[in-house]
Amino acid sequence: MAARVYQIIMNKTQRDAINKHGWDNVDVGKALSNVQHGFKGWMPHYQQYYKLAFELESDSLDEVFELTNLYPKSEKVTRVHNHAMSTSVGHIIELDGTRMFMVEDEGFERMYVFEDEISEDRMVS
Question: How do the domains of the chain map onto residue ranges?
Answer without folding.
Answer: 2-114
